[in-house]
Amino acid sequence: MKRRRFLQYLASSGFASLVAGGGVKAANTPSLRYLRPPGAHDEKKFLSKCIRCGKCGESCPNRAIKFFSTENGIVSLDTPFIIPREQACILCMKCGDICPTGAIPKIDYKANAIMKSVHMGRARVDVNLCLSFQGKTCGVCYRACPLPDIAIRVGMLEQPHVLENCVGCGLCERSCIQIPQAIKVIPNHTRVS
Amino acid sequence: MENVKPEPSSKLRHLNKLRWLTLATVFLMLILLPFIHLYQTYEAAHAYDLLTPTEKAISDAMESLTSPFVKEPEELSAIKGTTWSGTLFGLKISDPLAVLGQIFASMSLYWSFILTALIPLLATLLFGRFYCGWICPATLIYELNDNLAAWLRKAGLPVSRRKLDRRIKYVVLGVGLALSVYFGAVLFGSIYPPAIIGREIYYAIALGGFGAGAVFFLLTLLFDLMVSRRGFCRYVCPGGALYSLLGRYRLFRIKRNVKSCNDCAKCNVVCQFGLDPLQDNFGMECNNCTACIAACPTDALGFTINVQDSAYQGPGHLGHQYKKEQEGA
Asked: Is the Cβ of B207 closer than 8 Å to some Cβ of chain A?
């Protein structure tokens, strides 16, 4: 009987500490700017659907998808993310094909389908850093964009302007030659609307 | 005194070797697939000349390994994933624990995912915890760890073989499901050794370092060494709990043939799950690993088709106790 009491105590205290500690840690770290794989649901639904199998990363031909350890709370443990400055998404949509759980829905490899269903974030230009806005014609972000003139257009001196259709793949941020980068993708799940 | 010692000749005793082969194959595939992934990314980048010497070596090795089977590296995507959830030539197969966890975490039924667990589910209903003995990549390491424990014992180091309550793992399963609901996330993936192993091998090879799960897995190895033999599988593993429940009325189970049993108890010693084949006590926990069949010197253990273990059949007919009883009667 003594052992059973002990086990009950162990189980209940473990449960309590997990709930208490995990509840605090569950909130995402706001300073961390990351994207979820293309087409992923909003953060809450994504976390509840993802089983952390890692196949999205294994199917990514660009090696853009990495996996969280504990830095984003235990709820995000082992979930996929993309840091666009390190390696951006090329919108090949292979992760959605292989995802078994529907956390990343299957999306056709077509511009219309991608623009309709992919909302990773929106690029934002920092005019104080952007070379084109400083009078040095650059336009690299425009050339890197997979949806030129749909997601981004350039004005005088190749000055970039992000349009409504930007899906947030981050290829512009990846290619920006300024340090720190003058164009950044603001993830949809952290953006205050 | 008869001195008949027939050589054990049953074919079933080779099943244990076949099992080791299966375990090793699964484990090697888990190591090979990340390398294939790397090779595919190198090919997709069309930048062979820019690779470092190590990367070139990986690329060359994978090319020579796979070129007899496929024309384009793209076709290698037919086999992806781990035992937690994998893709085999378009067929998606997932662990039933993943499906259960996702149902509770998302509080919804996503049928195209639930159906991926159908094959493992049916197999478990037929064979019980066979996944734990035959496929689970963690089992390979746990069994090697158990051999290490035997060596440590021989060297005189204390290796504990405490017995805990088997029902702890059902508590872990229940609490895990409750926490999945509470957090809205599938938490089993982080404490379930086969999922951890598949993931951590991928992290180590493709992403260049182990993650948090590797630490947890090392702790479970220590738990097995210092607290209880195969303790994690027997007392903690939520997947083992689920498979035990599903395999409660499994059709294929190991049975002792009392007529050729000589009460040597080798089966009880060799059973890493601490079961009691000598007294016909297999229960839900038996993972059909067939180690007891391979160890039996008189071929008294074999398979039977029955939804229940037989009741205790008494001492083996070749043993001393049975003879004594016969003479007494």
From this structure: yes
Q: Which fold has domain B251-328?
A: Alpha-Beta Plaits (3.30.70)
| Domain spans of chain B, in order of start | 97-109+122-248, 251-328
Is residue B327 classed exposed, middle or buried when 0-12, 13-18 and 19+ CB atoms within 10 A define those classes? exposed
Domain total in chain A:
1
Using CA atoms, how far residue B298 sits from B61, B241, B282, B312, B329, in Å, is: 47, 32, 19, 19, 26
Residue type at B233? C
Ranges under pLDDT 70 in chain B: 1-9, 329
Chosen from A15, A44, A55 to mutate, greatest number of chain B CBs within 10 A: A55
Q: Do B81 and A54 touch (CB under 8 A)?
A: yes
Residue A1 forms part of a structural domain: no
Q: Residue A23: pLDDT band by 50, 70, 90 thresholds?
A: very low
Token output for A142: 């425009």
Rounded to a whole number of angstroms, the distance from the CA of A97 to the nearest CA of chain B is: 10
A11 belongs to a structural domain:
no
Residue A5 lies in a domain: no
Q: What is the pLDDT of residues B67-93, one digit of tens each?
A: 888 888 888 888 898 999 999 888 999
- Predicted TM-score (pTM) of the model is 0.87
Contact of B218 with chain A, judged by CB distance below 8 Å, is answered with no
Instruction: Say if A121 falls within a structural domain.
Output: yes
B 49-78 near A (Cβ less than 8 A): 77
Contacts of A57 in chain B (CB under 8 A): 202, 206-207
pLDDT at B1: 45
Could you count the other beta carbons within 10 Å of the beta carbon of residue B313? Answer: 15
Whether residue B87 and residue A100 make contact (CB cut-off 8 A), yes or no, is yes
B166 inside 8 A of chain A by CB: no
Q: Which domain holds residue A43?
A: 32-187
Tokens 């290698």 belong to: B76
